[in-house]
Task: structure prediction
Amino acid sequence: MLVKTVTEEEIHDIGHAFGYYDYGQETGMTAAFSGQEATADYRRMLHAFSLRVSERAG
Result:
């Protein structure tokens, strides 16, 4: 799926989903960062950056 537009709220929600997902007994992304909010911030930044790159390419 190619996403051409996304709102800041959607980016926030995506980051939150990755940062606060309950991985149960599995090790999730939060193991790579200092906690849930740091993971969420990283995913928000990644999604915002990838959108900006695709906007320039398209």
Q: What stands out?
A: The longest helix spans residues 36-57. Residues 24 and 30 are 12 Å apart (CA to CA). The chain has a mean pLDDT of 80. The chain has two helices and no strands.
